[in-house]
Amino acid sequence: MLLKSLREEVLEANLELVRRGLVLYTFGNASGISRKDGLIAIKPSGVPYETMSAEHMVITNLDGGIVEGDLRPSSDLATHLEIYRQFPNVGGVAHTHSEFATSWAQARRPIPCFGTTHADYFHGEVPVTSPLTAEQIATDYEKNTGIAICRHFANLDPDAVPAVLVAGHGPFCWGPNTTAAAHNAVILETVARMAYYVLTIASDAQPIPSDLRDKHFFRKHGVNAYYGQEKS
Ligand SMILES: [Zn+2]
């Protein structure tokens, strides 16, 4: 069996999304990539989580061709592939319809950076993609969703903002590996919920100043990071 440890990580990330309440039934999907092999492991489509195992993960190449597996891959595979192709540092992708992040996506409003919890993970607002055209929906819908995501990051660093809200749909999150992508999806949901509460308490609330945002983001990310324990 190919990519045993990647399969296990991808399975675990998918289960984590369920445990954290981000996924109902079989909505949502997580995947991971082995850049060295050019292969992706992704959740199969429509398999109940209770019986899902690492063997069920589907291995595909970067063109979506199935390399190993009897099951159909998640129907959002083409969106994941586009993210892997365009964002070279991404090692894992997680997609959910989690309640608060999806509500922002449906309202087509970016999530403002109201506090340091947000700034610890996302350097600035979490953006919303432009809606797809009728033609983009009719043909290659999932791929066009991925293209819309990547187009939005033409002037934005996907490593600094590892999440996006797809207009009228829901969040896609990513990270250096699948575990990090799922973690970012959990944090995004929390940040989305808190932002909703902030605007409920004070409808004129403003994002935190850029110096506080930068302090929190860069103490955890990048060359000058100092949060946590030193990595050996
Ligand atoms: Zn979806």
Question: Explain this structure to me?
Answer:
It is a single chain. Helices cover 40% and strands 13% of the residues. It is of the alpha+beta class and 232 residues long. It has a single domain (4-220), classed as Class II aldolase/adducin N-terminal domain (L-fuculose-1-phosphate Aldolase, 3-Layer(aba) Sandwich), CATH 3.40.225.10. It has a seven-stranded antiparallel β-sheet, sandwiched between helices. A hairpin with a 3-residue loop joins strand 6 and strand 7. The longest helix has 24 residues, at 178-201. It is globular and about 50 Å long. Zinc ion (ZN) binds next to loops. Zinc ion (ZN) is lined by residues 95, 97, 169-170.
Q: Could you give the topology of this structure?
A:
Layout: H1 4-19, E1 29-34, E2 39-42, E3 58-61, E4 66-68, H2 77-86, E5 92-95, H3 99-107, H4 116-121, H5 134-138, H6 141-152, E6 163-166, E7 170-175, H7 178-201, H8 210-220
Helix pairs in contact: 1-7, 2-6, 3-7
Bound molecules: zinc ion.
Residues 95, 97, 169-170 line the site of zinc ion (ZN).
CATH architecture descriptor text: 3-Layer(aba) Sandwich
Q: How many strands in all?
A: 7
Q: Mean pLDDT across all residues, rounded?
A: 95
Write the CATH homologous superfamily: Class II aldolase/adducin N-terminal domain
Entry keywords:
alpha+beta, L-fuculose-1-phosphate Aldolase, 7-stranded antiparallel beta sheet
Quick structural gist:
The protein has 232 residues and is of the alpha+beta class. Helix content is 40%, strand content 13%. The chain has helices at residues 4-19, 77-86, 99-107, 116-121, 134-138, 141-152, 178-201, 210-220; strands spanning 29-34, 39-42, 58-61, 66-68, 92-95, 163-166, 170-175.
